[in-house]
User: Which sequence fits this backbone?
């Protein structure tokens, strides 16, 4: 496993991270498999584990904290997020000082930790001034409850405004963002990646395999694999990605993966890691075999001619509008 700095900061994170489970596994057969997968991650050199307070109402945090607690605190970096409703009260959601302070304390209790390494604002809160949110996050860094903080799905304008407020008020810096980024969704390349590079902000993308589209298991003209996410996912995110255009691109990418002797998923992860602005890629794994396969992407450098072929296949056109 290779490691990268979190942006310009001193924290080292594994190129491949393990995202937590979004369902309650308590008392199920899946719980032991998940536990074994976390331990396997340590064996592979993974040191970064991602979670969120809203996953199963805190059950995911409690599970992850229990398993991570079997390892020395210095051996891992753990992140969680705040924003989504955690109750029915008017202040049980968002990015106000009250909700962030209360929810961080709950996350620390859930995971039985004294501090969180990375703390993310899951979404932007239009009902709370950015000044209030950045101030409380900075205060929590000073208090030692979090070490670094960042945002997840914020727009370039929102990120830029946050950076301006932080500098203007001499607050602790915004150190990391966690956006969606994969071969099928490259919006962060238009502006956000440059903003992060200029400000030394690390990028730890989620959904690197586009809900499973980039694993190669969904094939053009073939029925959905039995038991796959596309057959049961309630919000149908993966189904919306299974377009003729996307599946056609996968068909063209699969031979490249075969030539390199790696699964399609490994090609997709290595493609993301080609960018120096990426600190770590957050992957999901429901069993050890998937994690072991994903870990192969760490340190895999794609030849220039392969990258050119991929660019031709993806045919990405950044949004540019000339003014004046």
Assistant:
């Amino acid at each position: 496993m290779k490691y990268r700095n979190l942006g310009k900061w001193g924290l080292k994170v594994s190129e491949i991270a393990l995202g937590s489970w979004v369902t309650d596994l308590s008392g199920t057969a899946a719980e032991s498999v998940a536990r074994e997968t976390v331990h396997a991650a340590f064996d592979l050199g993974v040191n970064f584990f991602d979670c969120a307070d809203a996953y199963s109402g805190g059950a995911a945090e409690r599970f992850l904290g229990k398993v991570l607690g079997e390892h020395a605190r210095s051996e891992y970096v753990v992140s969680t997020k705040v924003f989504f409703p955690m109750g029915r009260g008017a202040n049980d959601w968002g990015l106000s000082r009250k909700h962030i302070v209360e929810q961080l304390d709950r996350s620390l209790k859930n995971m039985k930790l004294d501090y969180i390494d990375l703390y993310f604002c899951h979404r932007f809160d239009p009902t709370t001034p950015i000044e209030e949110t950045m101030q409380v996050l900075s205060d929590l860094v000073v208090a030692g409850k979090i070490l670094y903080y960042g945002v997840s799905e914020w727009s370039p304008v929102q990120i830029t405004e946050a950076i301006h407020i932080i500098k203007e008020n001499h607050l602790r810096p915004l150190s990391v963002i966690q956006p969606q980024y994969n071969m099928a969704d490259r919006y962060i390349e238009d502006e956000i990646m440059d903003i992060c590079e200029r400000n030394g902000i690390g990028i730890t993308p989620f959904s690197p395999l586009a809900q499973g589209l980039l694993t190669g298991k969904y094939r053009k003209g073939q029925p959905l694999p039995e038991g796959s996410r596309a057959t049961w996912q309630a919000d149908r995110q993966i189904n919306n990605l299974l377009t003729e255009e996307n599946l056609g691109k996968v068909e063209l990418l699969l031979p490249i993966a075969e030539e390199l002797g790696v699964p399609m998923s490994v090609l997709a992860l290595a493609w993301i890691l080609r960018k120096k602005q990426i600190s770590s890629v957050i992957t999901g794994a429901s069993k050890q075999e998937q994690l072991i396969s994903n870990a192969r992407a760490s340190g895999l450098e794609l030849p220039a001619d392969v990258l050119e072929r991929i660019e031709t296949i993806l045919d990405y056109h950044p949004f540019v509008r000339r003014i004046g």
Q: What stands out?
A: The chain has a mean pLDDT of 92. DSSP finds eleven helices and ten strands in the chain. Residues 244-260 form the longest helix (17 residues). Residues 3-212+263-299 form a domain with the TIM Barrel fold (CATH 3.20.20.100).
